[in-house]
């Protein structure tokens, strides 16, 4: 398995804050609010701007209640749920009488796949422009996030294979307020990504805003990073900042809050593509230590 790239080695990290970066980011906003994109939609750029789009499927994995849906909501510029609800599902693309899936769409209980519903799966599309370090070229990254409720994964045997099929990256979540979710990471890695070693894997700690009450001390994070050699990011689960009306989410502020996650994901995926194409060397990561606890398992 290829070793992850060093942060900032493939993607210019603060480019989104530059005047040029803000011009490109404006295409994913409307009147300072985030635009929501269906599966068949894409940002509209000026005719004079021609950039390539790199599309990726990303499966978000983690124990129930760690904040998978909240993370995807923040990445897409949606309201973060204030209470936990099991992910139910979303409209199936191409179903009779059903339009493209809209970001953040959840369904009522009792609907099933015969009515054009994928029970338990929610898909959300996020666009993110980034500048490459090597070529100084801007690429539009299109992330299609797949989020599936844990109850649905247990109930339907076909759910996990469907989420894993043609997946380009796995995001493994744990909560800083739930020690068990952190200790479950090796099992998640083996169960979800064990058969796909070439796929990008990242770990994200949610609810970092409650770090003063954390059940996961920094020494354990350090031990995990050393054993697994995986990128580990932190995100807050608080509601986003508002515009002057006090109700509407501030799109620019929301993008700034999640830029490190989207840049990190773009960097890992772009590097993986370059290695797969033979354009970059493929340094192998060492296997994790077989010592039990959080350092056990096979990445």
UniProtKB/TrEMBL annotation:
Gene Ontology biological process terms in this record: cell projection organization; exocytosis; protein transport
A Pfam short name: Ras
InterPro entries: P-loop_NTPase, RSG1, Small_GTPase
Source species, domain of life: Eukaryota
Subcellular location(s) per record: Cytoplasm, Cytoskeleton, Cilium basal body
Gene3D superfamilies: P-loop containing nucleotide triphosphate hydrolases (3.40.50.300)
Molecular functions (GO terms): GTP binding; GTPase activity
Record flagged with keyword Nucleotide-binding: yes
Keywords: Cell projection, Cilium, Cilium biogenesis/degradation, Cytoplasm, Cytoskeleton, Exocytosis, GTP-binding, Nucleotide-binding, Protein transport, Transport
Disordered, as annotated region: 279-299
Family that this chain belongs to: Belongs to the small GTPase superfamily. Rab family.
Protein name: Ciliogenesis and planar polarity effector 2
Taxonomic source organism: Oryctolagus cuniculus (Rabbit)
Gene: CPLANE2
């Amino acid at each position: 398995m290829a070793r992850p790239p060093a942060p900032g080695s493939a993607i210019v990290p603060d480019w989104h804050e530059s005047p040029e970066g803000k011009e490109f980011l404006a295409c994913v906003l409307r009147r300072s609010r985030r635009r929501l994109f269906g599966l068949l939609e894409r940002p509209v750029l000026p005719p004079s701007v021609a950039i390539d789009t790199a599309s990726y499927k990303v499966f978000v994995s983690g124990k129930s209640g760690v904040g998978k849906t909240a993370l995807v909501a923040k990445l897409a510029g949606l309201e973060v749920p204030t209470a936990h609800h099991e992910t139910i599902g979303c409209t199936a693309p191409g179903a009779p009488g059903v339009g493209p899936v809209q970001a953040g769409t959840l369904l009522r209980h009792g609907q099933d796949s015969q009515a054009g519903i994928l029970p338990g799966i929610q898909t959300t599309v996020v666009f993110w422009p980034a500048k490459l370090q090597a070529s100084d070229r801007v690429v539009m990254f299109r992330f299609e996030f797949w989020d599936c409720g844990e109850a649905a994964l247990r109930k339907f045997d076909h759910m996990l294979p469907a989420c894993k099929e043609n997946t380009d990256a796995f995001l493994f979540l744990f909560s800083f307020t739930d020690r068990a979710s952190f200790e479950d990471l090796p099992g998640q890695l083996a169960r979800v990504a064990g058969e796909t070693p070439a796929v990008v894997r990242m770990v994200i700690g949610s609810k970092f805003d409650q770090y003063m009450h954390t059940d996961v001390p920094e020494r354990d994070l350090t031990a995990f990073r050393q054993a697994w050699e995986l990128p580990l990011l932190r995100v807050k689960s608080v509601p986003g900042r508002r515009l002057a009306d006090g109700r509407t989410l501030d799109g620019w502020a929301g993008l700034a809050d999640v830029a490190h996650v989207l840049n990190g994901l773009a960097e890992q995926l772009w590097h993986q593509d370059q290695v797969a194409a033979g354009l970059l060397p493929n340094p192998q990561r060492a296997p994790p230590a077989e010592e039990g606890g959080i350092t056990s398992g096979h990445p």
